[in-house]
Amino acid sequence: MARSALLNVMVQAAMKAGRSLSRDFGEVQNLQVSMKGPGDYVSQADRKAEDIIFAELSRARPGYGFLMEERGAVTGDDDQHRWIVDPLDGTTNFLHGIPIFSVSIALERQGQVVAGVVYNPAMDELYTAERGGGAFLNDRRLRVAARTKLSDAVIGCGVPHLGRGRHGNFLIELRNVMAEVSGIRRLGSAALDLAYVAAGRMDGFWEDGLSAWDIAAGLLLIREAGGFVSDLNGGQTMLEKGALVAGNEAIHRALLKTVTKPLKA
């Protein structure tokens, strides 16, 4: 597959950060871990990976701004472009030795995501997408799954944990979805959840309470793989509000309806 110069820069940054994470993953018990909030851990590995990505992308495109999990917003001279970066999505998995975590990098141009990379270094799986150019896993083109019935579908989700609200609302959503689908999965990395939908490994996904850096690259992966993504109202405020439903056209429509319906008494 042919990649643009910008996407090559993103891939290089993601894989360099991934190599650093892989080394730390092998010594996860020795990491010094601080608690940023209930259930929201930050490690030396996380910060180191973000430093690597920041340095690589800044060197390649000095004027671009950033939105990063640890640094937050960094203004650049070029107000048309912004990198949206999660250096370690799935931190809790990482710290528990579970090999389901990822680096996520997206490029936003004039408010629209135009390129995305999600990399799982533990499995050496590289997901890439450019607007209008398709989505790929390593060098294999991706398409969302073709199933059209929720009863045949495996659906991914995120589960609100300690310190996060919406427990009651989520349980209503979960009960509604459980009654309709073949299976439910919770990976612990929203970026990989979305990549799995793009790859057809899961038929759909929904979650609320996400940040832009969790999902920006994954949104593009799904769209370039022929899928559909919206917020819980069917709109396009996912990056702003952090809630989304994804799948192919039929599954997205059915899952959105199921997630948002009131619980029957």
From TrEMBL:
Its cofactor is Mg(2+). Keywords: Hydrolase, Magnesium, Metal-binding. It catalyses: a myo-inositol phosphate + H2O = myo-inositol + phosphate. This is Inositol-1-monophosphatase. The keyword Magnesium applies. It is an enzyme of class 3 (hydrolase). PROSITE patterns: IMP_1, IMP_2. Belongs to the inositol monophosphatase superfamily. It comes from the Bacteria. Pfam families: Inositol_P. Its EC number is 3.1.3.25. CDD domains: IMPase. InterPro entries: IMPase, Inositol_monoP_metal-BS, Inositol_monophosphatase-like, Inositol_monophosphatase_CS, Inositol_monophosphatase_SuhB.
